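Co-fold these.
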Amino acid sequence: MNLSGEAAIVGVGYTDFTQNSGRSVLSLATEACRAAVEDAGLPTGEVDGIVSFSFQNDSVTAQAVACSLALPRLNYCLDLNLGGQAPCFAVMHAAMAIAAGLARNVLVYRALNGRSGERVGSRRFKSPTAQYRYPIGLTAYSQYIAMWARRYMIETGTTYEHLGAVAVQSRWYAERNRRALRRTPLSTKEYFDSPFVVDPFRVPDCTIEVDGGCAVLVTSTEAARELRRPPAVIQGAAWVTGGRSGLDIGDVLSWPDYRFNFARLLAGDLWRSAGMSPADMDFAEIYDCFSSVLLYGLEGLGLVPEGEAGPFVAAGETALTGSLPVNTHGGLLNEGYLHGMNTVAEAVLQIQGRGEDRQVADARAGVVTSGGLVDGSALILVRDSA
Amino acid sequence: MSRHQTGLIRPTPDLDSSKWWSAVAERRFVLPRCTTCNSTFFPPMPTCPRCASPTVDLCDASGRGRVYSWIVVHRTLDPDFHDDVPYTIVTVDFDDGARMAGRLCGGNPQPGAAVAVEFYEVDGQVLIGFRPSGG
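Predicted complex below.
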């Protein structure tokens, strides 16, 4: 069975993104899901599948959301125990369930109180390799990814200026996105004036933790044509777990080569699944928990030659007027860390022509990624050709 | 660049790692090695991550290696390490194989620089850091 073109995303839903929601995660998840269903113009009771993911139990289950939405029943239900690798994979599961005839309308959501609740930047995870990191003060993702970024800089000649170009370009988009938590303009000088969190990362190189929810609704491409929004057709999808990727998602010791991440490992499968190539993409939404991860994504997917992503961004090629607009919502760096569910939603808005001041002209095809290290997922979304 | 470590989150050894931590407590540097394919690896696991054989032993290792990458932590959300910043952590590729992360105890980090294991103690807990070895 080939998934290509079988299913489409037809609605997106968001809560407000804040730093102190004052609400339960269930309340956030429910609002985002309800908004996605309403956006699609579907009666809520038509939803018969829910897929979500939770990182060390920071979210609520699909079962709970089915209950809060008063759904009559679910025929497909999946709670993934994953973090930022998951959003595209979760959408892929929704498409699989639909293509297999197991469900008709599947919600995919992510909700958390990521700032006012337990912060990913300071939580202590119970994981097999925590015992080798925490005692020496290697305690946060900013640090793990920075360790990768340093090696990437050594091997490719990527500079602080290149990381800064990512942060500055992403902020330009964020100024045009009402949801973004960070919206004040950022100049290169301001970037370099900002303090290091963990060298090589300064504050604007790091995502901002957020309270909120984000959801998308997936249905069959055929059914999507009867709904009110233009479908964002799921043309391709892939997941990969790299060999020796580690014992847990904080393991920085098992994978031997920090030069590239999962994006390179799944690129071949992804393009084959869609029958498309990097040259066919009008835009890209690359998971960017930290600035360097955007560069890994561009190179890994083959959108930019190896080692040239930094200069590509610095030359303005990822701007709205460039050859490949990237992270048009301002990225996780600025919109907020909804673990990449919002990265998927932005791609849908672009395909649907709903990007407002940051809309990519004639956005017919785009690629989305989820993940920063050696496991992750990606989607190719296209405008419906029927 | 790097201050002496004062903060500590105590390690919580598990059934796969307790022997390795016991060796560390005795300031003995050992690494897991597969006696089937002869590869050295870290962290400890029940089987060899290269050939999946369960024939894994802890073996004495040189503790010498080269800096693969590093970070300098300037801000931390973890209160245990507020007094330590800024501090440098290096990932080191050992000459015998395997990679490990640890505090850099002296000198500035350089890619490929030769380093050697240095044991140190924080609040009674022996930990492994790295010092430049000039080799």
